[in-house]
Amino acid sequence: MKKALVYTAIIILALSLTACGDNNSPSATAQITSSASQTAGGSPTKSPISTGSAQNTSLPSQSAIQTGSPSASGTLTPTPIPTATPDNTQTGTQKPTGTPTKAPSKTPSPSSGGPTVPVQPSAPVNWEPVIDKDGTYHFGIGHTEYTGKLLTDFTDGTINTTSSYGEYKFEDGILKVYANGSFADAYDNITGGLDDGDYANAVYVGVRVHNNNDEPAWFGLQGDNIFLGEKGDDVIIAYDNGRAYATTVEYKTTRYCAMLPANFEGNILIPLSRLYSGTDMNASTAWTDNRTPWTKLGFHVNCEENNSVDFRYVFLTNETLPEVEPVPENVDFNITNPEYSYTAEQRITPFWTSNVMYNESLTMEENNGGNIVGKLLFVPTRIISVVDAKLQNEYKEGVDFKWIEGTNQIEWLEGSSIPYFYNGALSGLKENGQPVNDYPNWDSEARCRLAGVLYCADKFLWEKQIAVTYEYDLSQVEERGIVYTQYQGDRLPKTTQKLANNESLKVLFYGDSIFAGGDARSGRGREPMMPTMDVLMAEYLRTLSSGTITFDNISVGGWTAENGLQALQPGGFSGKDYSNYAGYDLLMLSFGMNNASTSAESFAETTQATIEKIKEKNPDIEVILVSCICPNPAAAGFYGNQQYFGAALKELADQEGYAFVDMFAVHHKILEYKNYSSTTGNGINHPNDWLIRIYAQNILSAMVEFE
């Protein structure tokens, strides 16, 4: 009785803080999937980009402690879940009197664009800055050299380091910018000395940059009558090793900014078509309309970490640069394994259609005997690669780990650089055995203890989720009873027809924090910047159809199914009024994680009422119902009636002709072979990147016949 009261108090506190939107806690937001469970589907292709996704801070939901496992029919019988065992030195000289710091050893470049730059040049290249006495700036992409005209090395103008936001320092010819976990903003870091460039013919402005942070930083160029805009040609980041990529441009703290990957050092090349005149970002003209020479330049930096982003040179170039591919997932290039591959297509290909599992998440856990072991979903026939959580650095077999052949287990080796959970860490204990702070009191590592388990959405959790790529025998899918989603085109005839005929498709994406994007790396600015669920699916569908694919994500973290229904009424709920949302072709609907104490019957009734409400404004809309994943079964009070929702939703889907994806059953079966810590983004109830991919694969399988 006392225990029940304690858990009840914890839950009430959690929900009350959720309602307040506690910005100090790791956000809880999530994703979706659709279809029925069990039969093979098909094989995917590539991926596209979706519209915004709502993100709200939410806490894990509560529930009664019951467990369940899916039967072959898709119903759930209450049985326990099986537990898986456990120096920024840049060379160059002052303008215009300097001499080259290093003779350019490359061949002169053509002024016309070349072919697409490969992800990895065929041979090492060194493109550290070289500046001639006349101010010619030499830089390279791939094995090809290009030139520009140096505008400033910060020695021939007036340096201003005063700012209301962030911190600017000028040291040893380098402007060092500290966002201090937020943003830094200035319009006039350099004034004067900017008049030597060929503004009339320039195609790109280049900036020499070093991101000293282990997380991405965001950079915006601005100044006297210019700022970086949303639209235009690709912004290129060019590493000193010859690699170059088109980087993302996003709206960050009132500015459009280009992403600088973690530890990036090289040149960022901004097409002048991306620059706009004026200060009103909603009513500005292209700078190229007037090409007024700049008299002031400033730097806007947005970064979660506290190290500096360094700027050394600014230059203009008249050259047309080659087309480049988008910045990849494994952008740090410390992976030398020639077999390692992780394309957008591989990321979204259903694992049950291929004999290769790409970057399956795995955690090493120390058991009571002191052994440190991780478990895969399948028994490999061959391990291709083991890399870190950021998909940047590889681990070596025989040095960092040992695969126990004939099993799904990987052992940690003494002296290994692979991070692991020490014994007790997942119960919210420090290494000395003392508990970490109880929720809502986060410690310095953004951890707390909630319901007897670790609650964490920061490095302490996610950096221990390494990624394993391996081959396996596909027969194991059937042998292990792996649950996955069947194609249900007969229940989505209008959707499938629109895709086949290249017609526009408008999707309403609605659910709780899982659908909202909770703990997808891109939502937290972490490498490898894996997109949220809705974006993953939109990207993929755009590879199938030339029609306009739109996803409107109106999901809200912390909401119950009842909250979702209330928001559809005039007046809405908690500041969200969705009563007039119209014009949609397809609804992807997923609540349930925050309904642990709701009966399956009541949950199904609320779900149907929600659909009927949406149909009032969207009479022809088709529906994919998606059940939630499993909450952590070790978290007292969080695992409850979610186990019964799959069967209730399947019955509803069969009655009404909706497509259905049983993600609870999918996840439940996975947990027979893997630790919960290898599938979660917060330790409680959010999927990590790998499980988000499994979500997307299953939903898409309801819509697409993979070959």
CATH architecture of the largest domain: 3-Layer(aba) Sandwich
Basic shape: globular
Give the biggest beta sheet: 10 strands, antiparallel
Mean pLDDT: 83
Q: How would you characterize the overall build of this protein?
A:
With 707 residues, the protein is an alpha+beta fold. It folds into 3 domains: 2-85 and 490-703, SGNH hydrolase (Rossmann fold, 3-Layer(aba) Sandwich), CATH 3.40.50.1110; 130-317, Sandwich (Jelly Rolls); 344-465, no CATH class. Helix 7 crosses helix 12 and helix 9 crosses helix 10. The protein is globular, with a radius of gyration of 26 Å. Residues 1-116 have low confidence and may be disordered.
Brief summary of the model shown:
The protein is α+β, with helices and mostly antiparallel strands and 707 residues long.
Provide keyphrases for this structure.
alpha+beta; 25% strand; 3 domains; Rossmann fold; Jelly Rolls; 10-stranded antiparallel β-sheet; 707 residues
Topology of helices and strands:
Blueprint: H1 2-20, E1 36-37, E2 69-70, E3 76-77, E4 130-131, E5 136-141, E6 144-152, E7 158-159, E8 167-171, E9 174-178, E10 183-184, E11 190-191, E12 204-211, E13 217-223, E14 226-228, E15 235-239, E16 244-247, E17 249-252, E18 255-260, E19 265-271, E20 275-277, E21 285-286, E22 296-303, E23 309-317, H2 344-348, E24 356-363, E25 365-366, E26 372-375, E27 380-387, E28 401-403, E29 409-412, E30 447-450, E31 453-456, H3 459-462, E32 465-472, H4 475-479, E33 485-486, H5 493-500, E34 505-511, H6 513-516, H7 533-544, E35 549-553, H8 561-566, E36 586-590, H9 600-617, E37 622-626, H10 642-656, E38 659-661, H11 663-670, H12 689-703
Parallel strand pairs: 34-35, 34-36, 36-37, 37-38
Antiparallel strand pairs: 1-33, 2-3, 4-5, 5-6, 6-23, 7-11, 8-9, 9-23, 10-22, 11-22, 12-19, 12-23, 13-14, 13-18, 13-22, 14-20, 15-16, 15-19, 17-18, 20-21, 24-32, 25-26, 26-29, 27-32, 28-29, 30-31
Helix pairs in contact: 7-12, 9-10
